[in-house]
Amino acid sequence: MSQLKAVILAAGKGTRMKSDLPKVVHTIEGKCLVDYAIEAAEGAGAGEICLVVGYKYEIVRESISHKDVKFVLQEQQLGTGHAVRCAKEFLGEEGQTLILFGDTPLITAETLKKLREHHIASGNTVTVLSAMVEDPTGYGRIIRDADGNFVKSVEHKDATEAELASHEINSGMYIFDTKELREALDLILPNNAQGEYYLPDTLTIIKEKGLKVDAYALDDPEDITGVNDQEQLAAAAVVIRRRIAGNKAKNRR
Ligand code: UD1
Ligand code: MG
């Protein structure tokens, strides 16, 4: 298999945490949120990992227990596409790039491995991890045509009424063929409701080139659940403790 590198976005402050600490250094079972994402990336086969940091990045650097990761600084948070663009030198020219967020600690190596297998087996240039959810409010929506083919990923704030009816959400996690990601990153523009450089716009750019773009949908959204506030941090901790207890039980058997 070709080489896999991972970029983990962790530059934001996480205002809704109501904390002075960057969101991704909050801990569950003694490990900070971004460490969970790093472990999942490693477990999925990422040989090199780069963290995009910004808000209080010194604290992020000190808090993570995985010391063999690289860092790039995104001084201003201009959007997810801009954040990945900051890591362009790290990406290199070939192989595949896994994109994760630092605030989704429930993602597992198993799910990412399945995403990568699907990406390769389907001959996709980019595969976005998606999930069916009851309440998609606030998330980017995956839009498909009548035959179920991927059309685009549109942000809630930019979506039409019809698009908002989609319950398939963009998780923010992707596998890209690196070469095409690089080219598409140069073409995205902040011409949208939030004035940001959106990473999901690269999907449209790559599709318009005639390359294969698809969403790999999970039936159960647990793995992609993000942490935005203290309540969600507590909920994620419950899941992680349940998983740890489950593993212990399995090992006893
Ligand atoms: C993003 C996706 C959306 C998806 C959702 C899943 C985009 C434009 N939208 O929306 O489709 O459904 O995630 O949770 O990608 N970050 C940076 N630098 C930036 C901007 C963001 O590092 O300039 C980091 C944040 O720290 C955070 C993550 O990227 O960890 C997501 O950013 P956020 O602005 O919260 O994206 P959403 O609006 O949730
Ligand atoms: Mg946002």
TrEMBL record:
What EC number is given for this enzyme? Answer: 2.3.1.157
Q: Which CDD domains match?
A: GT2_GlmU_N_bac
Q: Which UniProt keywords apply?
A: Acyltransferase, Nucleotidyltransferase, Transferase
> What Gene3D superfamilies does UniProt report for this protein, alphabetically?
Spore Coat Polysaccharide Biosynthesis Protein SpsA, Chain A (3.90.550.10)
Entries under Pfam families matching the protein: NTP_transferase
Q: What start and end residues bound the annotated signal peptide?
A: none
Keyword Phosphoprotein (UniProt): no
Top EC category:
transferase
- Ranges for domain Nucleotidyl transferase: 5-213
**Catalyzed chemical reaction(s):** N-acetyl-alpha-D-glucosamine 1-phosphate + UTP + H(+) = UDP-N-acetyl-alpha-D-glucosamine + diphosphate; alpha-D-glucosamine 1-phosphate + acetyl-CoA = N-acetyl-alpha-D-glucosamine 1-phosphate + CoA + H(+)
Gene Ontology molecular function, alphabetical: glucosamine-1-phosphate N-acetyltransferase activity; UDP-N-acetylglucosamine diphosphorylase activity
Keyword Transferase on this protein? yes
Q: Which PANTHER family match?
A: BIFUNCTIONAL PROTEIN GLMU, NUCLEOTIDYL TRANSFERASE
In UniProt terms, what function does this protein have? Catalyzes the last two sequential reactions in the de novo biosynthetic pathway for UDP-N-acetylglucosamine (UDP-GlcNAc). The C-terminal domain catalyzes the transfer of acetyl group from acetyl coenzyme A to glucosamine-1-phosphate (GlcN-1-P) to produce N-acetylglucosamine-1-phosphate (GlcNAc-1-P), which is converted into UDP-GlcNAc by the transfer of uridine 5-monophosphate (from uridine 5-triphosphate), a reaction catalyzed by the N-terminal domain.
**Protein name from the UniProt record:** Bifunctional N-acetylglucosamine-1-phosphate uridyltransferase/glucosamine-1-phosphate acetyltransferase
Q: Which organism is it from?
A: Roseburia hominis (strain DSM 16839 / JCM 17582 / NCIMB 14029 / A2-183)
